[in-house]
């Protein structure tokens, strides 16, 4: 029983890390995805400076998610990563390009257009790959003898393309609303226009993924539509509709922070939906959390540290955001 | 393509990405500490020259750190993509150590990096210094955990093997973390990072002294770097020697490969200086050796008997030629560093530290030596661990993922192209930044127009650097 509790706690911690990653790096990557929509010069510099001091910390949650999975659920880590090999590599290469662009674009004005492209393409590649990985996990991984046994392109399907595009759109929405919050002038106006379209796109994408998921496997169908569970699960789409109404209202009334918060809310609802579809599996329909779990000695050793350290991390991360609060000026952090 | 063994491709990919990655932390570990010292000295003495040097190296740090972060992220996923059997089996032991690295080090570095780079005008001197210290501390904590992981793979302790064939903790985590080779390897790695950084700083200082031996920034950085090289190199050679003795105790086959000792030597082993070791023939061709010195170094007795690789099953031998030569490159460079440090002491004594061009040329030549030595050292220890991933327990040939050759080959190619392109450009930018002499009024990397305070002197940010008066540093 002790082990079961630990395993659920670790699933919760990793879900939290992934969630933190998606919302935090989501707006970073989103700004990268939208980068070409901003004019060369002050607008782009402003967009970049809105995330320059925080992107590294945001990306660390991805290491926490991956590292946590490795440590707490080694079997899930060892199955999912080989099964989605090309996607993971594409994500890593994309993150490499957009990560170095943060510093490189300021080093040589002549090279700047190139690194701006790298920033955009890298961000978009990473977002697509992450979305498609999610889709691949949902649609199922072929496993034999507790190892990935599928072909190396098994993950590619219309459904994964759909999830990839959905995450791309969703990150774009987070990026646009973050810029509405952090910038002024023409940059903000441009971001507000983009947010409107991306908000609509994200809702379409959420609807499409939600509609397609139950058809992937009967298990998903049963989870969402069988009585009495449906009374609870139906709340998720209901809340999405309410959030959507407030999102468009807030955007029209010129609110600055609220659109970003509502976009976060939409993502969280998406997460709850995923949780309903996946729990209690680590690899859907193949491996439960307990099948994949590391032994209790490993999980309890990490938990001792995590309960103390993660709150401290949240404190100093919050402090860092507080230091860089307010609007970014056009001059920003770099010359 | 079908002829390629995907395991070899996966190993090549891991070796390429990890080697490229480690170049950056071996510099940022040292540079973060150096920046901490510079800012501390500035706060203590109020001398502007330290503030200037801080800003000069901070801009370089930002670029190197970014490359370290993105290349490190790759590593944390490659364990799963390429080495999933290793990940499953060793995950319960090494996973938690790496999770602690993320929680105690990566977040600390990332959380305070923004303030360190861009926050001087927002938080004031004291808090900014705290941020610098936290970043430096983060790099050291990170080193500690990852070396613990690597050392456990070399000298596994405190484990049991469960029904699934996984390594699981058998008792105290302390025996896992403080496994027998960990303290030696941690010292050796941290000292290597400090030495590598001091050689780079020394080379940059020397480069500018060659054109202008009165540049105060160049003088100060060169002097600091040469003190470091002179003091740390002998300590590092001693640390390397103790690590060698530790390797001899726990991984004798690796040490014998480093020495090139195929045959046992009952009456004292020679020291083989050079030669071409051959695994197939089981001997060293064309060898140049000094009798009895091998036993003298390893057993402190010229006539002590030494074992030979031939006492171990041939399939447990590492590739001897690689280990033998990478070890010699590292040791050779170590002695070159010792010579440079010694020469700098001589120059100091002769009061010609700043106007002895040959010393400066030598220091410039030695600028990249630390990186080469670090990579050679890691090659020695990692190739020397073969044919195992977990020494003596888990074979490399049984650790890899179910891999498809086309996927691994394509990704290897992509890594080579992207790394050479992105990091090649990064290294070019670094060299451009280093080629610029330290000005008397270095601009902030973070030029925030309003409320400029703290480390930035009363100087209009954004004005051309040439406008600054170099005399007031």
- Which series of helices and strands of chain A comes N to C? HHHHHHEEHHHHHHEEHH
Q: Quick one: biggest sheet of chain A?
A: 2 strands, antiparallel
Shape of chain A: globular
Q: How many H/I helical runs of chain A?
A: 14
Largest sheet, spatial ordering of strands of chain B: 1-2
The most extensive interface between chains reads:
A-B, 71 and 80 residues
Q: Please tally the helical runs of chain B, counting DSSP H or I stretches of 4 or more residues.
A: 14
Q: Major sheet of chain B: size, sense and barrel closure?
A: 2 strands, antiparallel
Oligomer: heterodimer
Proportion of strand residues of chain B: 5-15%
For the record, the count of structural domains of chain A works out to 1
Helix fraction of chain B, binned, reads 55-70%
The average pLDDT of chain B is: 87
Q: State the distance separating the first and last CA atoms of chain B.
A: 61 Å
Verbal overview:
The complex is a heterodimer of chains A (335) and B (473). Chain A is mostly helical and 335 residues long. In chain A, helix 1 runs antiparallel to helix 6. The radius of gyration of chain A is 20 Å and the shape is globular. Chain A has helices at residues 2-34, 42-49, 55-72, 74-83, 85-107, 112-139, 158-182, 185-216, 218-225, 229-233, 235-252, 258-278, 289-292, 296-323; strands at residues 143-144, 147-148, 281-283, 287-288. Chain A contains 14 helices and four strands. Chain B is mainly alpha-helical. Chain B has a domain at 1-179 and 404-473. A two-stranded antiparallel sheet of chain B has the order 1-2. A two-stranded antiparallel sheet of chain B has the order 3-4. In chain B, helix 1 packs across helix 7, helix 2 (48-82) packs antiparallel against helix 14 (405-435) and helix 9 (252-259) crosses helix 13 (369-385). The chains are: A mainly alpha (335), B mainly alpha (473). Chains A and B meet through helix 3, helix 4, helix 5, strand 2 and helix 14 of A and helix 2, helix 3 and helix 14 of B.
